[in-house]
Amino acid sequence: GDVVFPPICVSCRKLVPSEAEFRHLCRRCSDQLDYVAAPHCSTCGHPFYGVVEGERMCPHCEGLAPAFREGRTAVVLKGPARALIHELKYHSGLHVLADIEQVFRRMPQLIELARGATLVPVPLHSRKQRERGFNQSELIAHALARAADGRAVVRRMLRRTVDTVSQTRHDRRTRRANLKNAFALASGGVISPDHHYILVDDVFTTGSTLNSCAQTIRRAGGLNLDVITFGHG
After folding, report:
1. How far apart are CA 143 and CA 210, in angstroms?
2. Potential cystine with 183: which of 24, 25, 196, 216 (Cβ 3.0-4.6 Å)?
3. Are 105 and 74 in contact (CB under 8 A)?
């Protein structure tokens, strides 16, 4: 166990003492996690810093016509939060899921939104999932369900029909064009109009992927639909 291999902080690579709140972030790095509190954008969840009055135009999701009701995020994706996601996605670091769950546990408003809902992970294309060995959004959805003390269920309701190239280097317009009709309901996926669905993804960047998923669920009759991501950025 930890005696032989003490955990190392994924952000600064220093040892994490056994009494630390997180297993893979040291105290100094976990103190730098930027939890999102009100006021924040109701579409993408990014915090509004300083005093906000009147109409709130959010530069992070500008031009997105959301097919979902509300978008929430736990942390701003920088520094230690980014290190957690990178460890999970690019180093198969499934051990950091306990810390991702711990972040969710510190966000009572997010947990409240998730309770009683069906959590729908954003799907990977089957080729990508075979390469990576897992879908990080699905694992994050399970972490959120655990943080909600099991009072939310995770279901694979969607499948990715188009093997889109990585979206990270594209601007908003190209992302949206790439994702047109990229998702469909999974076989046997039945949407109940009065049920609460929450799309879950690791990161909210421009919202194009999440919105494409949301449009698929709406077309199938799911109108009670929100979005939760671990990070924004």
Report:
1. 19
2. 216
3. no
Conformation bin of residue 225: beta by default, left when phi > 0, alpha when psi is -120 to 50? beta
Tens digit of pLDDT per residue, the chain (233 long)? 445 677 899 999 999 988 889 999 999 999 999 999 989 999 999 998 765 655 667 888 888 999 999 999 999 999 999 999 999 999 999 999 999 999 999 999 999 999 999 999 999 988 888 988 999 999 999 999 999 998 999 999 999 988 766 555 556 666 666 677 789 999 887 899 989 999 999 999 989 999 999 999 999 999 999 999 999 98
| HSE-up of residue 136 (Cα within 13 Å, Cβ side) | 24
Sheet containing 118-121, strands listed edge to edge, beginning at the edge strand earlier in sequence: 71-76, 225-232, 197-204, 118-121, 153-154
Structure tokens at 178: 């790439």
Instruction: Please list the residues that pair with 183 across neighbouring strands.
Output: 160
